[in-house]
């Protein structure tokens, strides 16, 4: 099974990107998690640029990676009480064309979030679940809030908190389970 992890933060030392990388390390046997690193190359959504075969290269790459994945793990920071703009923009591109063929349509997805605050991006995760559902994804139950995330990772960005590791492992396993359930006809 192939999963794609998207971090809603472009910062080099992002805690949310560290969560995505940790998920890849904790994946169960037989599951490969690719951490997508091309969101900086995805321009702001512009329907005028969204022409079949003529979309920007970063958008084509994003859509191809989502289409090739069996499921998605989206990890969001919380900016002003909601999902990051870069992640929302990626969803806007991946949900097009709405008339069919959008790589996000029917894709099983899980959400997680990390913050240095005490709530672990819960509001952002709630918004992300809603946005993904409206865009046509099958969002699994449950959030994964990681509060005070700077204490869960070491200075190299490696996960050091065993409780967070176990929660992340269980979240990925739930995504794998749901992604293996076929869509109802």
Strand pairing plus helix content: what structural class? alpha/beta
Distance between the amino and carboxyl termini = 22 Å
Mean pLDDT: 94
The overall number of domains is: 1
Number of E strands: 6
Written account of the structure:
With 185 residues, this protein is of the alpha/beta class. It has one domain: Flavodoxin domain (Rossmann fold), CATH 3.40.50. Helix content is 35%, strand content 15%. It has five helices and six strands. It has helices spanning 15-26, 57-68, 85-94, 122-134, 162-179, and strands at residues 2-7, 32-35, 71-76, 108-114, 138-139, 145-146. Strands 1, 2, 3, 4, 5 and 6 form a six-stranded parallel sheet that branches. Strand 3 (71-76), helix 3 and strand 4 (108-114) form a beta-alpha-beta unit. Helix 1 (15-26) packs across helix 5 (162-179). The mean pLDDT is 94.
Which descriptors apply to this entry?
185 residues, alpha/beta
Gist of the model:
The chain has five helices and six strands.
List the helices and strands and how they pair.
Layout: E1 2-7, H1 15-26, E2 32-35, H2 57-68, E3 71-76, H3 85-94, E4 108-114, H4 122-134, E5 138-139, E6 145-146, H5 162-179
Parallel strand pairs: 1-2, 1-3, 3-4, 4-5, 4-6
Helix pairs in contact: 1-5
